[in-house]
Amino acid sequence: MSSDGMLRVAAMGDLHVMEDHSASYRDLFGDISRQADVLVLTGDLTDLGKPREAELLAEDLRACAIPVVAVLGNHDYESGCVEQVSAIVRQAGVHLLDGSSVEIEGVGFVGVKGFAGGFGRRMLGAFGENAIKTFVAEATSEAMRLENAMRAVKSRRAVVVLHYAPIPETVEGEPLEIFPFLGSSRLAETIDRFQVSAVVHGHAHRGRYEGRTPGGAPVYNVAQHIEKPNGRPYALLEV
Ligand SMILES: [Fe+2]
Ligand SMILES: [Fe+2]
Questions:
Q1: Nearest bound ligand to CA 181?
Q2: pLDDT number for residue 147
Q3: How far apart are the CA of 153 and the centre of ligand 1, in A?
């Protein structure tokens, strides 16, 4: 913890660990353990959602000496092994959040993957074909699960952990045509009903680092590909 009682949170998304283990995170996790009190991973932990990929991540995480909080991303669902992947990640000691929260050193971490559907007045609505309604229901359900998890937080300091973006500002830089697949304003609507210290997400590899919800909550796109103020693949936040 820093001298002024703030919790130092390192946050990074989109590790996309591959079976060939071409990129090891061991050294980075060691470095992060010296810089921060908690590590937050914002999904796409694996590249194809394969159990072997999750095992390699678990191996790298042995170099991490601080608590780890994570959500899954869409890539972690790709192979239909999400339960196995989740179990491996949890066995590695990770607080894997999925519509749930964990309190660490007085800060409540609340996590949900989120979903797509677009932003603001251009958000996809539940109209017409059943397939569209099912798609929109998934986004609504994720926002509701976030809301329920937020209600359970007792701490006055809360960090929201997502994979999908809650606002369009932090996906800017991506092609405009894919904005609706990168996140949903329904998440921001939920966030703005609560007092939140910071929101972190990933998924938009070519997005922008910083933005705010309409209610003023700071939002950070911490995908490892995004340029951060500290020049590292992870963001360092004090909450
Ligand atoms: Fe990703
Ligand atoms: Fe993603």
A1: 2
A2: 98
A3: 28
